[in-house]
Specification:
203 residues; mainly alpha; Rna Polymerase Sigma Factor, Chain: A; Arc Repressor Mutant, subunit A; 2 domains; 0% strand; elongated
Length: 203
């Protein structure tokens, strides 16, 4: 069974064949683990995320379709991408290296049109909430997140202390996070909301 194609294994898995399921796990587990560990740098969490991927595969086995190359890899690594995003959105997680998550977000995957529409919708929601911030919070936030100016330059530009700028940006982020939670969104949008939480993370 180890030499069976992904499509054959998936066909067997759909019929409830646990041996085919185990073969597929053995085929992709190491690749997924290394891929996720490289992004989150935590062995235990990486193992948990890989397990979540395969549990999801089993639960959704009848709905999965393969790519033109007859491979499950795109599906599995796309799942890994969203789980990494969700991982960084957890309250206990501090984003130490934003570039690591940016890399995760930019990992090639088959993004559907609906996903892009949801991302655009979220950006509109986020921009709307930023527009409602008082000027003392909105201005430093935009200078930091949109113009990517460092705290020192923002402080000089606004004639404020660096600590005041940090406090204002932190307050703005807290307000926006809380307001985003008021949107009762389901499905893929939950994953996109996780992306928004990442965007609101600061070092």
């Amino acid at each position: 069974m180890n030499s069976s194609s992904d499509s054959k294994l998936l066909e067997l898995i759909c019929s409830g064949n646990h041996l085919a399921y185990a073969t597929l796990i053995d085929r992709y587990w190491e690749q997924l683990y290394r891929h996720i560990w490289f992004k989150i740098k935590n062995s235990d969490d990486a193992k948990d995320l890989v397990q979540d991927i395969f549990l999801s595969l089993w639960k959704n086995r009848s709905k999965i379709t393969l790519d033109v190359k007859d491979s499950l890899a795109p599906y599995l690594f796309r799942s890994a991408k969203y789980l990494v995003i969700n991982h960084f959105s957890r309250p206990r997680i501090t984003v130490i290296n934003e570039q690591a998550l940016i890399t995760a977000l930019e990992t090639p995957s088959e993004i559907k049109t609906d996903d892009l529409m949801l991302t655009n919708e979220l950006k509109e929601l986020l921009d709307n909430e930023v527009n409602q911030l008082p000027e003392r919070l909105q201005v430093p936030y935009r200078l930091s997140r949109e113009q990517e100016l460092p705290i020192r330059e923002i402080a000089e530009k606004l004639s404020l202390s660096e600590q005041t700028v940090k406090n204002n940006i932190s307050t703005a982020l807290s307000v926006i996070r809380l307001k985003l939670l008021k949107y009762n969104l389901e499905g893929t949008m939950i994953q996109i909301i996780a992306f928004a939480i990442f965007l609101l993370s600061i070092n």
